[in-house]
Amino acid sequence: VQLVESGGGLVQPGESLTLSCAASGFTFSSSFMNWYRQAAGKERELVAGISSTSSARNYADSVKGRFTVWRDNVKNTVYLRMNTLKPDDTAVYYCYVPRFGSWGQGTQVTVSS
């Protein structure tokens, strides 16, 4: 199982970013996928999840209405669109596949003026 996140960076408050997580080594199209984040000095928290067919999605209360998760089962990739970013969104963002308990290496998102 391999998960590779990309798309992080430094942005100003109110701006947007789209993260990608490219998956390989397992049947992606049959797997529920999650996005987590971990800010410095804090525990890792669940940000969003999406079912294998995209029929179900869930979000943390702190990102509802601002973040959107979707997936492409042909490209074996899950995405996280983050709008109206706030300084509190600063964290390392990780892709996770619960079925195998596997994590990506993470991508840093920094929101600062």
Features:
seven-stranded mixed sheet; 11 strands; globular; 113 residues; single chain; four-stranded antiparallel sheet; mainly beta
Main beta sheet: strand number and arrangement? 7 strands, mixed
User: Which structural category do the helix and sheet elements fall into?
Assistant: mainly beta
- Rough outline: globular
By DSSP (H or I, 4+ residues per run), the number of helices equals: 0
Mean pLDDT across residues: 97
Encode the helix/strand succession as letters. Answer: EEEEEEEEEEE
Percentage of residues in strands: over 45%
Which range best describes the helical content: under 10%, 10-25%, 25-40%, 40-55%, 55-70% or over 70%? under 10%
Q: Low-confidence parts lasting 5 or more residues at pLDDT below 50?
A: none
Radius of gyration: 13 Å
Record field, number of beta strands: 11
Spatial gap, N to C terminus: 37 Å
Question: If you had to describe this structure to a student in words, what would you say it looks like?
Answer:
The structure is a single chain. 0% of the residues lie in helices and 50% in strands. It is mostly beta strands and 113 residues long. The strands form 2 sheets. Strands 2, 4, 5, 6, 9, 10 and 11 form a 7-stranded mixed sheet that branches. Strands 1-3-8-7 form a 4-stranded antiparallel sheet, with no helix packed on it.
Summarize the SSE layout with pairings.
Blueprint: E1 2-6, E2 9-11, E3 17-24, E4 33-38, E5 45-50, E6 57-59, E7 67-72, E8 77-82, E9 91-97, E10 102-103, E11 107-111
Parallel strand pairs: 2-11
Antiparallel strand pairs: 1-3, 3-8, 4-5, 4-9, 5-6, 7-8, 9-10, 9-11
